[in-house]
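Ticket closed. Logging final result for Polysulfide reductase.
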Amino acid sequence: MAFFKVFGSLVKDSLRVTTHGSRHYHIWMAFLTFIMLVGMYCYSIQIEHGLSVTGMTDRVSWGLYISNFTFLVGVAAAAVMLVLPTYVLKDVDFKQAVLIGEGLAVAALLMCLAFVVADMGGPAVLWHMIPGIGVFNFPNSMLTWDVIALNGYLFINITIPLYILVMHYQGKTPNPKIYIPGVFISVFWAVGIHLVTAFLYQGLQARPFWNNALLGPRFLASAFAAGPALIILVLAIIRNFTKFVIEDKTIKKIGMVVAVAAQINLIMLASELFKEFYAPTHHSESAYYLFFGLEGKTALLPWIWTAIPLNILATVLLTFHKLRNNLNILYFSCLILFIAIWIEKGFGLIVPGFIPGPWGKIAEYTPTGIEIGVTLGIWAMGAFIFTILAKTSIKIESGELRFRGKK
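Final structure:
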């Protein structure tokens, strides 16, 4: 009963904190609310008319929704790069950012689930994914493993930070015997969610573009580059607009993680390009379509030829110690790296897997305004949730928000 009393007080205080703020804060939240409402309107059209209002077809059945889902799984998994050094290696420099990273993971996972719901056409079909009720097909289906992995990781990233925040809210020290086992589980689970997502694509033998043994490790490398890059950008915003103190050395240490992951990601990209183009076969047609076009079809060329130079430039800037330690250059590098990996791991991975089709048919995919509206709405929802989580966490961690018993 005592826990529920404290938790209830925390919820009330959180509502009070998140409904008050500066003019910039209210403008930001109003903007996100507007984008969410636009997304909801677009989604209502999709529910009414079905997936025919999207650019997806029977030829290209995964598009903008699954592209964002795949990318955000990596963003969610990247929280482990802060959890491991903070709770296991006792690196105090990461302690300032770990709860921010876990809040970002929760928001990313909720966005992942929202994109899956959008891609399925509507929430009415979700019962198919419920164990014991729907057609779960466990353990043979990789999709069911993905459902378990995502929901399990979401549960871990909610319960561990919640326990720590509730203890700090009471002015107490969290018991390591309670949360450290969960931390170890989360470290392995974070790797698992991205490997399972990669296996989901690798297991589709009819799609040779995905049938690549390097896909799983490259998923992890890109995740540990893009995720911490986003965390750095978020920390920079928090430093500028709140009183929460985040030291330069914390951001620079995360920048080193991004640099190493970006280098590994670029090496793996070069390895994949060598495999596709040094001794090409008919299985290389998807890669040719992505990078050079096929039969005059070139819809993805502007995307991939934007992503590759941005990826290379960001990696080069992050590699040199003096450049990386300049925070302005670090922020710029993280921004373009995030955009590059979003393109490369989204459109650059999902859409070419369907082109050409099994019979050689080339049917290009272009997202519609409805898809873009729903996508922006889901991203706004994630930003809205993260803002609430971060604002509450910052108030608790800074000591401004404390449990006062009876009120």
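The chain has a mean pLDDT of 87. No further action required.
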